[in-house]
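Lecture notes, unit on protein representations.

Consider one protein chain, 387 amino acids long.
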Amino acid sequence: MSKLVLTSCLQKCSSLNTVKKSHAKIFVCGLQNDNNILNQIAIFYVQFKKLDTARLVFEYISNPSSYLWNILIREYATQGNFRQSLALYAKMMQNGFKPDKFAFPFALKSCAGLANLQIGKLVHQHLVCCGCDYDVFVNAALVNMYAKCGNVEDARVVFDKMSVRDLVSWTSMISGYAQNGYNSETLSFFYLMRDLGVKPNRVSVLSALLACGNLGASRKGEWFHSYVIHTGFESDVLVATAVMDMYAKCGSLDLAHKLFDQTEGKDVVCWSAMIASYGFHGQGRTAIDLFDNMVKAGVGPNDITFTCILSACSHSGLLEEGKRYFEAMKGFGIVPKLNNYSCMVDLLGRAGQVSEAEKLIENMPMEPDASLWGSLLGACRIYDGKK
C-alpha cells in the first residue's frame, strides 16, 4: 500500500477500529516515521477519546503539527488533567513552538484548575509576547484564571481593558468576587451585567445567591428568588439548593426547609446543604434526623455530608453522636478527609477531650493544617490542657 493510498484511507476513518487498522498498516508500509501520517493518526485517537494512545503516538513524532499540540493541551485540560496539560504546554515552549490563541485558553484553564497563580502569570506574559492579549477568548480565560487563583484585582484589570466582554468574562468576574468574599461587588456586577443586556447564566445566579446569603441580605435574596422563578432556573436542583441555603443564612430556616421539601430530585448536595443549615443554627438533633432521612431516601452521603453532620454535632455538643457518625463513614465506603478530621478535633476539643483530639491528629494519614491545630490550641486554652 502506497503512502497516497494510506493517506486516502485515513481521511475516511469513521471509527476507532478503522483508525487502529490504519495505524497497523503504517508499520507494514514502512511509514512509521512519517510525520504527516503520525499526526493524522494521533489526531484521530484524540477525536475518539483515546488520549493515552494519542500521547504515545505523539511522542514518536519529530515535528508535531501546531494543531496536534493544541488539541492535546485542550483535551488534557478539558478532562481535568491540568498537570499534564501544563506539562505539554511547557514542552511546546521548550521545543521552540509558538503557542497561539487556541493553546492559551486551555493553558490558563489548567492554571485556574490548579490555582497556580505563578504559572498563570507566566502564561500571561507569553500570550502578550505572542500578540494574543486582544483575543476575547484568551482574555476571558485570563479573567477566569486570576479570579480562580484569588487575585480578583488583576482579574478586574484584564476585564476593564477588554473591548468586548462575553458572558464567560462577566461570569468569571462575578463568581470570582463571590468566591473571594467580595459580596457587594458580586451583586453590583450582576446588576450591571443584566442592565447591559447580558443574560445571566446558572453560575452567575449561584454566585449572586451566595453573596446574598453571606451578606444576610434577605430583601435582595427575595428579589433573586423571584428572578430565579421568572427565568426558569427554579427547576435546577443546584439553584434551588442555593436559594434554600441563602434563606437559611439570612435566618429564615423554616422557609428554607419549606423550599427543601418542595424541591424535586433532591441530590446529596441539597441534603447536605439543609443538614449544614440546621447545624449552623445549633439544631444538631434536627440535622441528625435529616441525615437519617436522607439515607432512608436512598441518597448516599459523601465526605461533605459527613463534614456537615459532624459540624452540627460539634456546635450542639453531641459528642457520642459525632463519634458514631465518624465511625459510620467506613460503612459507606468513605475515607475521612482533612475536613472530617478537623470537625472531629473540634468536637472533641469542645467536649474537653483534648488528649483524645491530640491522639486523633497523631494518627491521621495526612498532615494537619493550620485550622486543625488552631482548634486543638483553642481547646487547650479553654481547658488548660488538663483533659
